[in-house]
Amino acid sequence: MKLQLDPADEAFREEVRAFLREHLSDDVRRRSHIGMHPVHTGDRVWWNEVLGRKGWSAPHWPKEYGGPGWTHLQAHLFEYECRMAGAPELRWQGIRLIGPVIYTFGTPEQKAQFLPDILTGKTMWAQGFSEPGAGSDLASLKTSAVLDGDHYVLNGQKIWTTEANESHWGFFLVRTDNTVKPQRGISMIVLDLKTPGVTVRAIPTINGEPATWEVFLDNVRVPKDQMIGAPGSGWDQGKFLLGNERTASADVEKSWGDLRRIRTVAAAEVRQGRPLIEDPLFVAKLRELELQVQALEWSVLRVLLDAPSEHPVAARASVLKVRGSELQQRISELMVEALGTRGLRLYRRDMAFEPETVTPLWPGHVPGVTVDLLYQRALTIYGGAREVQKNIIAKLAFGL
Ligand SMILES: Cc1cc2nc3c(=O)[nH]c(=O)nc-3n(C[C@H](O)[C@H](O)[C@H](O)COP(=O)(O)OP(=O)(O)OC[C@H]3O[C@@H](n4cnc5c(N)ncnc54)[C@H](O)[C@@H]3O)c2cc1C
Predict the structure, then answer these.
(1) 382 lines ligand 1 (CB under 6 A)
(2) Which CATH superfamily does the domain covering 125-232 fall into?
(3) Hey, what CATH topology would domain 249-398 get?
(4) What residue ranges in the chain does DSSP mark as E strands?
């Protein structure tokens, strides 16, 4: 990354690097570099605790709510350094998604109840927005919440709820009013996923790893003070949350880490008697992607640093989402291309830790590559499908 940093930001970056050198073990780094963390919750929980003790677990949160109070540039530098050092990714749903909603829209009691455990990673969260008939057309969601004394009673079904199986809490969009415009009848409510009436069922995925779940709500009673904001205001909170999700979806840190891994893989793979990394055609493809990621990184920084723009921030967040997810897919395709015919086989990430599976035919840089390529198909779907993001850009940025 070629950023012109002032001395204070340089010193900040050095402080982060020193912290990472001190705290990250080789084992954790190794699991990170082969993309193990999505299937290794232990490392993520541990790392969240380590950062929580230091006050660094929520880089974008203001000091007032337990964040480090960093500038957006510092938060970006921190995330970049963490990824390049091989730190586990933190779970998004608590720190990136519901935490900011709670400190922006929640009551003082809700802030006191939920924010500290989100910061330390003690509670994990799942996002319950999508339903079988309500994905892109989220406003048509049907899961109902009916007031009964001091409780709302929830009935309905959510789908594609990432990590619902191991989450403690969920934030759900529910319908509290059928008589108004669809968006105005939606509310946001948080609930303990151990509440009676909640059933979670796995959805098999293309890469064979558990990732996403269905959640069935059958007469689930939720205290009414667990609604975030006023009844009927859930659409505003949902839009606020999705704006943050889309900006974060660009995930340039992951792209930089994967580009570096491609170099490692291409140095180890041999084609026609020489390392693939010496093949000018392959290197040209790699360099093009590096340039594209660099350009995207500048665009992310322009949004984060609030640089003047003629386009509204929601349109720019959608641009970052589309561009970032497409680039990540292209990067994972090049990584599989680097493996040649080995890329045809699904080679689990955790195989790298079974020494007998690492042979000259299946060397240590292979695990997880094809698995990751298949998972990356979802990037242009979740957080708002690509075609729908393009509609948003057309409308908001170009008035079409
Ligand atoms: C791996 C994964 C994880 C997910 N995690 C979560 C989660 O944790 N929580 C959650 O709430 N949801 C989650 N989702 C759901 C995700 O947000 C939805 O899948 C997404 O919003 C698309 O909705 P849909 O699947 O109903 O598809 P649809 O909305 O039915 O879309 C199907 C296709 O039609 C296109 N399309 C739809 N409307 C238009 C239009 N107006 N113009 C042009 N094209 C259109 C779409 O782009 C898409 O290609 C996840 C999805 C995946 C795949």
Answers:
(1) yes
(2) Butyryl-CoA Dehydrogenase, subunit A, domain 2 (2.40.110.10)
(3) Butyryl-CoA Dehydrogenase, subunit A; domain 3 (1.20.140)
(4) 125-128, 144-148, 151-158, 169-175, 186-192, 198-203, 212-223, 227-228, 270-271, 274-275
pLDDT at residue 290 is higher than 70:
yes
Q: What is the pLDDT of residue 103?
A: 96
Instruction: Ligand 1 pocket test: pick from 39, 165, 388 the residue with the most ligand atoms within 8 Å of its Cβ.
Output: 388
Q: Is the pLDDT of residue 330 over 50?
A: yes
Q: Is the pLDDT of residue 1 over 50?
A: no
Q: What is the pLDDT of residues 127-168, one digit of tens each?
A: 999 999 999 999 999 999 999 999 999 999 999 999 999 999
Global pTM reads 0.91
Determine how many CB atoms are found less than 10 A away from the CB of residue 170.
Answer: 25
Write the residue with the smallest CA distance to atom 1 of ligand 1.
Answer: 378
What are the residues facing 175 on neighbouring strands? Answer: 144, 186
The reply to whether ligand 1 has any atom less than 6 angstroms from the CB of 57 is no
Establish whether residue 50 lines the binding site of ligand 1, counting it when its CB lies within 6 angstroms of any ligand atom. Answer: no
Q: List residues bridging with 221 in a β-sheet.
A: 153
Distance 381 CA to ligand 1 centre (A): 5
**126 with 93: CB under 8 angstroms?**
yes
Residue ranges covered by each domain of the chain:
7-90, 125-232, 249-398
- Strand, coil or helix: what is 339? helix
Mutation choice for ligand 1 from 382, 386, 395, CB with most ligand atoms inside 8 A: 382
Beta bridge partners of 131: 134
Rounded to the nearest whole angstrom, what is the distance from the C-alpha of residue 200 to the centroid of ligand 1? Answer: 20
What does DSSP assign to residue 89?
P
Q: At a CB cut-off of 8 Å and minimum separation 6, what does 305 contact?
A: 72, 73
Give residue 38's pLDDT.
58
Largest interatomic CA distance in the chain: 75
CA distances from 15 to 69, 78, 225, 367 (A): 16, 10, 41, 33
Q: Given the DSSP bridges, would you call strands 125-128 and 169-175 parallel, antiparallel or unpaired?
A: parallel
Distance 116 CA to ligand 1 centre (A): 32
